[in-house]
Write a structure and sequence with these properties.
Blueprint (H helix, E strand, L loop, with lengths): L7 E2 L8 E2 L10 E6 L2 E2 L3 E4 L2 E3 L1 H13 L2 E6 L5 H7 L4 E2 L7 H4 L3 E2 L4 E10 L11 E3 L5 E4 L6 E4 L3 H6 L10 E2 L5 E3 L2 E4 L2 H10 L4 E5 H10 L4 E3 L5 E5 L2 E2 L4 H16 L3 H8 L4
Parallel strand pairs: 3-7, 3-8, 13-16, 13-17
Antiparallel strand pairs: 1-10, 2-6, 4-5, 5-6, 8-20, 9-20, 10-17, 10-18, 10-19, 11-12, 14-15
Helix pairs in contact: 1-7
Length: 276
C-alpha cells in the first residue's frame, strides 16, 4: 500500500534564541534537554545558539514549570540512554514514538506529526516510491527494482529503522529467518547533512529523512537535489522522559495542553514553516 502522509505541528510558544549550555547541572531548578542540533527546523545551530521548534517548545515548558532550560547537543543515538540513566531530564530531537523506545523511556503527548521522505539528485532515475519496488497484485512490495541500491540515513533515526526492515515491510534489506540482516543496503551517517553530502557525491542513491529538514537541505543545494513527491512514512514526535519521573511527565503534558490551547500555533508555524 502506498503511504501518503501529512505534517501537523501543534501549539508552541515562541521564544527567542536559546543559548547552548556547556555543562549539565544537577540543580532541580534546571530542565536539561538533550538534542541533536542538526535537524532543522526542529533544532539547529545559529552561531553559538540552538534554535528551532523543539528548542522553543522546551523554553515554553521550562517557563511554565519555573525551571531554567539547559540544552545539550549530543549524538542522536545517545539521547534516550541519557534520559533513561538520568543524565538528561528530557530528550527532544524530533523523536518518534515507537514500542522499542517506550521500553527505555516514557513519552509525553504528541506535539507534532512528521513525514519521512526521499531526497534524490535532480537527475535521479527515481521519481516516486514506485521506482524503488516491484509489487504484487495487492500492491505490496515484493522485491527491489535495483538490488544494488544504497539508501542514506542518519543513524538510529526512524528513517534508519524503516529502511533497514524487510522489503515486504517497505524496507530495503534482505533478512534472514531470524530477522538478522542478510543484505544491508542502508548506509548510516552521524547527521542528515552527512547523508546528503554522500548523496551529492553518488555514494548513496537516495536519502530518507524528515520532510522539514529535507526542505532545508534542498534549499541549501538548489538545482542539485530534490524531494520526491511520494512520501514514505509518518510518525508522532514526543518528549522523552525518565520512566521513574511520572510527576514530570504529568507536568509536561499539562504544559503542552496549555500551549496547545493558548493560540500560539499560528505563530510557530509561520516562523519556522511559513504557509505556502
Amino acid at each position: 500500500m502506498k503511504k501518503v502522509l501529512s505534517i501537523i505541528l501543534v501549539a508552541i510558544m515562541i521564544f527567542s534564541t536559546i543559548a547552548i549550555s556547556t555543562s549539565c547541572s544537577s540543580d532541580e531548578d534546571s530542565l536539561i534537554m538533550a538534542t541533536n542540533a542538526a535537524f532543522p527546523p526542529y533544532e539547529y545551530k545559529d552561531g553559538e545558539n540552538i534554535v528551532g521548534i523543539d528548542a522553543e517548545i522546551a523554553a515554553a515548558i521550562a517557563e511554565k514549570l519555573g525551571k531554567k532550560l539547559v540544552i545539550k547537543d549530543v549524538d542522536f543515538g545517545s539521547i534516550l540512554a541519557g534520559v533513561e540513566t538520568g543524565k538528561y531530564t528530557i530528550g527532544m530531537a524530533g523523536i518518534t514514538v515507537n514500542d522499542e523506545r517506550k521500553q527505555q523511556v516514557n513519552f509525553s503527548d504528541t506535539y507534532a506529526t512528521g513525514v519521512q521522505v526521499f531526497i534524490v539528485k535532480n537527475d535521479s532515475q527515481y521519481t516516486s516510491i514506485d521506482d524503488f519496488f516491484n509489487y504484487d497484485e495487492n500492491e505490496n512490495p515484493v522485491s527491489l527494482k535495483n538490488p544494488d541500491i544504497k539508501i542514506g540515513v542518519q543513524e538510529n533515526t526512524t528513517g534508519d529503522i524503516y529502511s533497514s526492515s524487510a522489503i515486504a515491510e517497505w524496507g530495503f534489506n534482505d533478512l534472514n529467518e531470524d530477522d538478522s540482516i542478510k543484505t544491508d543496503r542502508v548506509v548510516r551517517y552521524k547527521t542528515g547533512a552527512e547523508a546528503v553530502e554522500a548523496l551529492k557525491k553518488g555514494t548513496v542513491d537516495a536519502v530518507i529523512i524528515d520532510n522539514e529538514p529535507a526542505k532545508s537541505f534542498v534549499a541549501s543545494n538548489s538545482g542539485v537535489i530534490k524531494i520526491l513527491e511520494t512520501q514514505y512514512a509518518n510518525e508522532d514526535y514526543a518528549i522523552a522522559i525518565n520512566k521513574e519521573d511520572t510527576q514530570l511527565l504529568a507536568d509536561i503534558n499539562k504544559a503542552l495542553a496549555e500551549l496547545k490551547a493558548d493560540g500560539t500555533i499560528e505563530r510557530i508555524i509561520n516562523k519556522y514553516i511559513p504557509a505556502q
